[in-house]
Amino acid sequence: MDRPSLPRPGVAVVLRRVAQEIRSDVATARDRDPAARGVSTFEILASWAGVQALLAHRVAHALDEAGVPLAPRAIAYLSRAVTGIEIHPAAAIGGEFFIDHGSGVVIGETAEVGERVTLYQGVTLGGTGLQPGKRHPTLGDNVTVGSGAKLLGPIAVGDGAKIGANTVVIEDVPPGATVVGNPGHPVKVEGRRVEGPDADWIHLPDPIADAIKALSERIVELERRLAELDGSGEGTAAETPELQPRTGRSSAGG
Description:
single chain, 2 domains, UDP N-Acetylglucosamine Acyltransferase, domain 1, 32% helix, 15 strands, alpha/beta, six-stranded mixed sheet
């Protein structure tokens, strides 16, 4: 015997839920964006593209869950035209989600986003194939994704992870990790993970610079040993150019 399908939520229930989400989203924008502090709710709703795109998605997602045809995709299309942010109506997005600036953000159909997640401009939560089923990333709670990062395929990003700007992530990310590079790989900053909602993108490790420095030091050592063997004397080998780490004020405010 077939099990009866669960009743879809009524319009009144959906509207109450959307209203609560709107209040939460505006409060989140004010909390995460220094430019929004002291700004009225009306002004945030009228001029913050990330908030506008998210509110449109809340409505489109509720209608999609209720089985309403056409309207969810029409809302998503209009939202993309106005804000430059594309969120598929079926994407599942948790509470206190914030898109900073937002232009160029793409969130695919089967993407799942946890609570208190922050995305910056140009982020893609995309798929890697045409196979049915789960095709897009799943982000845990308290995840921060830097501008231009690409997260591709049905990967899982653990709670509290941070994805560096322009990083390409194609494998699962463990909880609490900071990931940089192409392809992305976990790193740490000064022996510890970055704290707070916003990663310090300026002072992240530079694996390429570290590799070049190691190779340069190796070449200098080989030149020194060669000079000793052929009797040309010591000190003729070139010195290793020193790669200075980036200094200055942290972009994360630290």
